[in-house]
Amino acid sequence: MSQTVQVAIAGVGLVGRRHADAINQLKNVNLSGVVDPSEAGRAFAEERDVPCFETLEDLFAAQSPDGVVLATPTLLHVEQGLECVRRGCPVLVEKPLATSASEAQTLVEEAEQAGVPVLVGHHRRHNPLIRKAHDIVSSGGIGEVRAVHVNCWFYKPDHYFDEAPWRKKTGAGPISVNLAHDVDLIRHLCGEVESVQAQSAPSKRGFENEDVAAAVLRFRGGAIGTITVSDSIVSPWSWELTSNEYPIYPPTPESCYLLGGSHGSLSVPDLRLWTHQNGARDWWSPIAATTVVRGGSDPLVNQMRHFAEVITHTASPLVSGREGLRTLKVLEAIQEACKSRETVKVLSRQTVETKEEVTVTG
């Protein structure tokens, strides 16, 4: 990639600033401007010596960026994403893609019809350890995947909720706020989810949302998955604490994903591959682990580099809008199953996406 790609960022809160830092580390990507009406946004733009605009419309009136990163509140994603698409501007949308699958589908379908790339910020797929895990599983390194378990347990302090009271409201529990990345990764590693059963428990702190939930997922390939999430459990078993991906979280030597196959098992993110010695497969034979070597790099920087490659037509989206939509449908199915206590079928047709729907069966 020889040309310099001009990228603007809408929303420079915590995540938007991390995207700006990622741009700063790439010599062929330049921050062209910031869209943020707040005083903090203007101060950030002045600090980075770039223009600041109150709206996307103002941005596009003043310049023609090669791409836009939407790090704005989820409620704005579809409206702002459509504005970018209608101007022919590729867009990287922070997760989740939208507040609902139906709204996300509007954005995805219009973008596909217009031929404008929409990427979703499930940046963990750009982590070298996930790339390696995907290589191991897809190449048959553990045989046929039969089961997967995902643990997403951590304790958010009271002030986290007091600083932003919307986090206490219905719909802002750990299923919608925290599971998006985890569901995306297990789809990436294990394939599409066909149906979901789930239960949740109300917040012990008296908030409107849940603070613990568990789901059983049936995958199209025949595997069964279990996933549990809580923002009120003191634990070392979450991606944030095990992956060493983001320095603000103190690392632990644990893993949070377990993938079980017919010929071996893999724990992630430590990438310990367990197999029986001498090719035997029985519980009386010794079993040993090999830690798989992989490279290390910042997934947010990798994602921004990838976005630039998509813009310059040298790569296809790793996490397209369609992929983000599929993950969102699984999240909605988990939430619906928690409410109904019934099996929710996620009917996904890879070739005929217009038939996708979520149904509840007794």
Order of helices and strands: EHEHEHEHEHEHEHHEEEHEEEEHHEE
Largest sheet: 10 strands, mixed
Q: What is the molecular shape?
A: globular
Instruction: Please give the order of strands in the largest beta sheet.
Output: 14-13-12-11-7-10-9-8-15-16
Poorly predicted spans? 348-358
Number of strands: 16
Note the beta-strand portion: 15-25%
**Radius of gyration, whole Å:** 21 Å
Give the mean pLDDT. 92
The class by helix and strand makeup works out as alpha/beta
Distance from first to last alpha carbon: 53 Å
Task: Outline the fold blueprint.
Blueprint: E1 5-10, H1 14-24, E2 29-35, H2 39-48, E3 52-53, H3 56-62, E4 67-70, H4 77-86, E5 91-93, H5 101-114, E6 118-120, H6 128-138, E7 145-153, H7 158-163, H8 174-190, E8 193-202, E9 210-219, E10 224-230, H9 239-242, E11 257-261, E12 265-268, E13 272-276, E14 287-291, H10 299-311, H11 321-340, E15 343-347, E16 357-361
Parallel strand pairs: 1-2, 1-4, 2-3, 4-5, 5-6, 7-10
Antiparallel strand pairs: 7-11, 8-9, 8-15, 9-10, 11-12, 12-13, 13-14, 15-16
Helix pairs in contact: 1-10, 4-5, 5-11, 6-8, 8-11
Can you characterise this structure?
About 35% of the residues lie in helices and about 25% in strands. With about 350 residues, it is an alpha/beta fold.
Summarize the structure.
With 362 residues, this protein is of the alpha/beta class. It is built from eleven helices and 16 strands. About 3% of the residues have low confidence.
List keywords for this structure.
single chain; 362 residues; alpha/beta; 10-stranded mixed β-sheet; 6-stranded parallel β-sheet; 11 helices; 34% helix; globular
